[in-house]
Amino acid sequence: MDIALLLIAAFFAGTLNAVAGGGSFLTLPALIAVGVPSVTANATGTVALLPGYVASIFGSREDMEPAPGLSMRLVIVLSLVGGVLGAALLLVTSNAAFNRLIPWLLLAATAMFAFGPQLRRWADSHRAEGAQPSRAKAVAGLLLVSGYGGYFNGGMGILMLALFGLLGQTRLNAMNAIKNLVSTLLTAIAVAIYAAGGIVQWKEAFIMMVAATLGGYLGARGARKLPAPVLRWGIVVIGLVMTVLFFLKL
Question: Which residues cross the membrane (predicted)?
Answer without folding.
Answer: 70-92, 101-119, 139-168, 180-199, 205-223, 230-248
